[in-house]
Every structure is written in C-alpha cells, then in structure tokens.
Amino acid sequence: QQQVKQSPQSLIVQKGGISIINCAYENTAFDYFPWYQQFPGKGPALLIAIRPDVSEKKEGRFTISFNKSAKQFSLHIMDSQPGDSATYFCAASMGAGNMLTFGGGTRLMVKP
Amino acid sequence: DGGITQSPKYLFRKEGQNVTLSCEQNLNHDAMYWYRQDPGQGLRLIYYSQIVNDFQKGDIAEGYSVSREKKESFPLTVTSAQKNPTAFYLCASSRGGTTSSYEQYFGPGTRLTVT
Lengths: 112, 115
Prior knowledge:
heterodimer, A: mainly beta, six-stranded mixed beta sheet, 11 strands
C-alpha cells in the first residue's frame, strides 16, 4: 500500500522557470514531511522539511506548500537551474526517530 | 568529518551467496535504517533500529538480516533467500531516541549486482 503518492514522475523545465512537484498522503498521523534531492549514484540529501502546523516553508529558492485538509504538499523550485537536475523524493513520517515513507520520486531536468 | 560511510561502493556476487553490506556512522545517532532503491523507483525500508541490540522489520525484510551490536554500526546481510537482490542499498541514520529530531541522513550507497 503506497501511502505517499508523488507526481509527476518526470519533469522538464527551462532554466529560470518554476519546478513544481506534488505529493499526497493518506495517513493523517504523519507529522513530518521532508523533501530529498538525489543525484545519480549518490545517496539522497535532505533539502527542506515541514511540519503540519505551518502552511509554507521557504529556504532560498526552495519552498514547501502544505495543505493539511487536502492531505497534500508540494515542492516549488524557483528560478530553476541546470544544477537542480536530479531526482526529488517527498516523504512522510510519524514521530521522531521513526521510518520514512517515500513517494516514488520525480526526475527533474532543467534545460539551459 | 562526521557522516555515514557505506562500503564497498560496488559489490558483485554470484547467485546463492550471502553478502554483507557495511554501514558506519559517527554522528552519535541512535536510530539507523536500511533502504533498497530499484532503478527509477522510490526507497523501500528493509530494516530499522532505534537503539543498540534492537531492530524492527520494514516493508521488505524477507531475505535480509541485520545486527546492531554497536551504536555506530548497522550491517545488512543479503541472503540467498532474497529473490531479486540486485539493487542500490542505502543506509541512513537519525538522532531518534527521546529527542524530537526527525531528520534522516543518508550514506552514499552500495550498488549490489548478483549474477
């Protein structure tokens, strides 16, 4: 049972554009929603994360928008750059120290 | 440097052989995790451990075994019972325990190929 659904599977954006990746979850007990960035052959790196008590969190060009009632959250990458080309994973967790449930991933390509 | 190390980076084995993947962390984290990643797919949890000498099965534990004898080490054994062992294996850790920290940090991964 996939508890976190991620879309789209792949995304092509022009340099300077906005990349938007969406995730939906089912389990209302989730209370931590991170996004990871993974380059080929490397481990995922934590990019940004949000808790359900806020609707938006911004760090540099990266913003998470969170809609608790819709059980959805999204990653926005402003002014996308070719160096942002990677696979992005959303995830969700219940409680500190507990395992993450990952979405299926989105392969982003930013064209110069 | 603090972080998570996995060795080796690439591993090749013949079908029917058990193989052990190493994961070490010097972050003083209580919790450690093993994930499997197949091409073009997300990460699936194999095993996790929130404290030394204790571990729990994840979503796809069949054919795998782990041990947690030391806080900094969480080796994963891929046994011959695992039907499709070829994959990219990722180890992660988090502060866990009684802290409120949720962040998981990943190692560089081991790519296992079984022929």
